[in-house]
Amino acid sequence: MAAAIDGVLPATLQELVKKSKILVVGAGGIGCEVLKNLVLSGFTEIEIIDLDTIDLSNLNRQFLFHREHVGKSKARVAKESALSFNPDANITAYHDSVTSTDYGVSFFKKFDVVLSALDNRAARNHVNRMCLNADVPLIESGTSGYNGQVELIKRGLTQCYECTPKEKQRSFPGCTIRNTPSEPIHCIVWAKHLFNQLFGESVEDEDISPDAADPEAQEDADKQADGDASSELESKAVESANGNVVRINTRQWAKDCNYDAGKLFNKFFNDDINYLLKMSNLWKTRKAPEPVQWETLLPEGITNTESLSELARQHHKLWSVEECAQVFAHALKELSAALKLEADNILVWDKDFPPSMDFVAACANVRSQIFNIERKTRFEIKSMAGNIIPAIATTNAITAGISVMRAFSVLNAKWEQCKAVYARLRLNGRQQFLVPDGFFPPPNPNCYVCASDPAITLRIDTKRVQMKAFRDDVLIKTLNMLNPDVTVESTGSIAISSEEGETTCNEPKLLSEMNIVDGVILKCDDFFQNYELSIIIAHFDAERDEALFEVIADKSQLQPKEEEPEQPKEQEPSSRKRAANGSDITDEGPSTSKRSRPTEIDDSDDDCLVVEEDEDAEEEQKSKLDDVAEVVSDATAKLSVESIPKTAAKRKPTIESEQEDIMEILDSSDEEPAVPTKRKRTKLDDDTSCVEVISID
Ligand SMILES: Nc1ncnc2c1ncn2[C@@H]1O[C@H](COP(=O)(O)OP(=O)(O)OP(=O)(O)O)[C@@H](O)[C@H]1O
Ligand SMILES: [Zn+2]
């Protein structure tokens, strides 16, 4: 079979292809395409890893899978299907997470190239770190609807996956969700939390009851403290047989009252709202919420089940509050029945399980009504709650094709041909549908991953953040470590240990109680990732709704606002932005933050940057090109890879002069000087896609 490609690839490349060992990470939409391309191009030594099993919803685009494979390992089935294209291939499949400790640096070192086809940031960050450590070129790819991107990550040559900040996860302060929602999404998040409280896994920070500790309402809370009202919100007071008052949590209470729709409705939408109203400080500048009562809304009680399920099927209809109350009752019944069937007594919220979605849509809308927020249809709420971006099979196929062509260039050590490529929905000014970067953005010297001695400054409210939150939210969620050890530099004392149980006693302590205060330097180390980071603590007192911490790679950003040097209007083109939150991003380094008691919506999928060219900025950018070329030239001059041209930013020779090139995506610098593109996030629109001409030698 492999012989069929004789004469298609240049002889030297074909030899390289035969000899090389490739790792494919992810066997989903892009991964299936990549694997098929690899075997059809003559690669024989391939390993593929995916942790997931095949879902029915994968079949429309993950064509290595068929109906009979549903429920089976993606990696194993992908292997079997790909072998039918080329039985000579030697494919090893792992049904496992790439973050497992079984796949350490020595595992990655085996490969000549790693092709990543993942769908989430945490796994991508991890693969990035492993490839940097192992010094293996990584071809990172992703799609988001009609947009796709492929980029090479190579230690010392290019930016790494973490050189630039990502778009922050949308997160909402706990007090906004619990006390003062002002947008539909706040009510949707609240409704998902309510679902978890009643049926799902109870998660800390997912309280749905009014937050009496809200600093803005503190005065009122103090007044109410005598009545112990706040604890009543988390629980229900019931009188025991001996007349004593016993408090039980909401989940238990809901179960004990047999999920009585009226009782539950009145607690969440009447009693709790009345409690909120007592926090009068909150409503001095806001419109006060208006509680709704079950009996007033539905004096006749619930209508028959048939018409209810009919109503729940009307996904594009804007349900009235009365209808929401009906759907609430109906969903409650179905969910409580479903819960009984679960051995572990837990339901996992799933947008595709109708009662779960109905419940969230109904509750979100009732809450919206109470807070005078626009209600949404079930359809709209589903896309907001489920964070749905359509997967487009053709974008995956194009992206996977470019990935494998980039692998050819990597094997040939033709680094200059490996500039990032963005697939776009519309043709740009140069009639390009596939837009390549004009140059390699050099590694960010302040990157907290690939810099030689990574260090960050952490602005943090040391009086409010506990050690556990520091570990989970800062080190793991924000700085992407897996299992960190932390020592205080000046004393050598261990603040956090990766050994289970060794520092559990520190977890509830505030940083300040551990003497981790302004100016202290922490040495953090993730053994498995072979990653060390110094963290310089800069204490600040966070205000209500303000981030409790912020990662800053550049100390000058610590200056008070008025003293801040004016930021340049245009970003240096050398910064490859994956994020869209403009002003928060600087070329100096990542800056990420987390709001106080935040709630993140599940948008961690970070498949690709949506790029758009800003034609107006081009002229201004042109003048910067020479500076950039110089920077890139300096950066590349320092590299140890011999084959790197020193002027990677300049136009490279066209394919005629490169006998062995098999393909080149027309560089933006082909006909004219490379003009860096300014990228910003853009909405997908419905324009028809056009096809880029790709020259094949
Ligand atoms: N840590 C990980 N280790 C191995 N594979 C992973 C890891 N994280 C994600 N993946 C895999 O990466 C693949 C990404 O593919 P894709 O984006 O098409 O996602 P999907 O889950 O198949 O589709 P969708 O999310 O649209 O339902 C998935 O098959 C997923 O299981
Ligand atoms: Zn980096």
Automatic annotation (TrEMBL):
Main location (coarse class): nucleus
Compositionally biased region (Acidic residues): 205-219, 601-619, 664-673
Active site positions, chain numbering: 175 (glycyl thioester intermediate)
Domain Ubiquitin/SUMO-activating enzyme ubiquitin-like positions: 458-543
GO terms, biological process: protein sumoylation
Residue intervals of the THIF-type NAD/FAD binding fold domain: 11-420
Places the protein is found: Nucleus
Record-linked InterPro entries: ThiF/MoeB/HesA, ThiF_NAD_FAD-bd, UAE_UbL_dom, Ub-E1_IAD_1, Ub_act_enz_dom_a_sf, Uba2, UBA_E1_SCCH, Ubiquitin-activating_enz
Region named Disordered: 205-238, 555-627, 664-686
Biological or metabolic pathway of the protein: Protein modification; protein sumoylation
Any one cellular-component term (Gene Ontology): SUMO activating enzyme complex
Entry GO MF terms: ATP binding; metal ion binding; SUMO activating enzyme activity; transferase activity
Ubiquitin-activating enzyme SCCH domain location: 181-279
Residues that coordinate or bind Zn(2+): 160, 163, 447, 450
Source organism superkingdom: Eukaryota
Amino-acid positions noted as binding ATP in the UniProt annotation, renumbered to this chain: 26-31, 50, 58-61, 74, 119-124
Bias-annotated ranges (Basic and acidic residues): 560-575
Keywords: ATP-binding, Metal-binding, Nucleotide-binding, Nucleus, Transferase, Ubl conjugation pathway, Zinc
Family from the record: Belongs to the ubiquitin-activating E1 family.
Assembly mode: Heterodimer.
Protein name: SUMO-activating enzyme subunit
Organism per entry: Drosophila busckii
